[in-house]
Amino acid sequence: MTSRLERLIDQGVGRVPADIVLKGGSFFDLVTGEIVRSDIAIGADRIVGTAGDYAGETEIDISGRTVVPGFIDTHLHIESSLVTPHEFDRCVLPYGVTTAICDPHEIANVLGAEGIEFFLESALETIMDIRVQLSSCVPATHLETSGADLPIERLLPFRDHPKVIGLAEFMNFPGVIHKDSVCMAKLDAFQGGHIDGHAPLLSGKDLNGYLSAGIRTEHECTTAAEALEKIRKGMHILVREGSVSKDLAALIPIITERLSPYLALCTDDRNPLDIAEQGHLDHMIRTSIASGVEPLAIYRAASISAARAFGLRDRGLVAPGWRADLVVLDSLQSCRAEMVFSAGRRVTDALFATRKPVALIGLDSVKARPVNAAHFGVPVAEGETSVIGVMPGKIITEHRRYRLPAKGNETTVDLTNDIIKVAVIERHGKNGNHANGFVQGFGLKKGAIASTVGHDSHNICVVGVNEDDMARAANRLGEIKGGFVVVEDGKITGEIALPVAGLMSIEPYETVRDTLHHLRQAALALGATLEEPFLQLAFLPLPVIPHLKISDRGMVDVDKFALIG
């Protein structure tokens, strides 16, 4: 009886028909840069033949089309798509993303190990190959109340799971440089494996020390100069273009044929509405080409270079013996996926129907205490007041100072300067902490918006002009078990329920997409000027850290006005 391996060899030689043959088209050779006219023969989950004519049990005419390897998103948080892994699979795979390397950092900060288990179970069922990096920073900071704690002892049981690659983004770069014991325990345990980096603006000898810990990738570069220094020091740069963090334009100069072996693409955080309107990694590819990037450079970054960076040695080329993750395009320039194959299977609605469901978790994770308008008061302070300055298109914020108006013994908003109130409310049921401050840059002229998606600890974050509306929005989040809410004059004008850990919907991605469109319109009616007010809101709880050279001051000091839930 012929074994599976023997059959694959026979199919490659041409002794027996392949399972599927794509006929009449061409493929993009990412080694030579040539467009090669050829049949592509598939046996089981891999390519068995190119550069020849093949017969297949199923033959598909792709005349006039070009085949490229499936795209690899090298760093993302599926939770930020606001849908479950199963719905993310169904949403993104048709755009040609056949591998996604995720960090379940968001759900882990709410539910701990249970959240990682949920993602691993889901990854075993999805059609797309979802790989998991184990969340390294849970809690993300001692400055905010998280829902869970993941010391090294809780991570080690997952290390050898078939879907696990290594350790996810190591955000605590001061802890690495100053040899914090918790950081050292995690880094020691994953030496020899893959460790993702996360070190925005880190350079010089501090960067050298960080890299000496065995950290090899970076998705936080926001300038070409920063990326080049990190490439020269051996890092693989993951060029990011998400719904909030948009770094592609700034990094276009480094996307060259020479540097492409050291580049990959990622989205980090991207929601279904943006995916529907623009696409996913395909959007990055066609935008890059339209900006003058050579197709060979960007398609390498999207596949083979990404695969090599993460040790996925079976994918990234259209060649015999390689995993049959394939995208059939109308053209390299437009990068529109007309047909997608995942491990040799043509992606269809029927294929998604074969997946087994995974039980949902964290459906009662929002345990915040009810609030009223009085909870949002800010006492009058002498002199200037600290204000968080939002920078559109970036998750980093600025420390600004303004002399704000007062009403009685309380500081109030300053709409002339686009300064409104912001609050973080602890929602894990641990201590009921509540912190208030001011933010500039949302554009709101009335009402309030609130969210349980609040990186990285995912407490409730609410911004608003009116304290009553802020309270109404925050309390509504408890009623719908998490999500986004828009309130105007005491009335809820838009909302989406995200009951899975307060982060993800239980609805199909199409429903989430349509609801997000309505939410965007509701936010615009309040005067919102940000392109993505809800995702920008989600990043406001991040502590505000001044730009200090770490070695000069020891551990980085955090400004006293940072909001701590």
UniProtKB/TrEMBL annotation:
Keywords per UniProt: Hydrolase, Manganese
Domain Adenine deaminase C-terminal: 395-561
Xref: Gene3D superfamilies: Metal-dependent hydrolases, Urease, subunit C, domain 1
EC number, as in UniProt: 3.5.4.2
GO BP, sorted A to Z: adenine catabolic process
NCBIfam families registered for this protein in UniProt: ade (TIGR01178)
Family named by the database record: Belongs to the metallo-dependent hydrolases superfamily. Adenine deaminase family.
Name the record gives this protein: Adenine deaminase
Gene behind this protein: ade
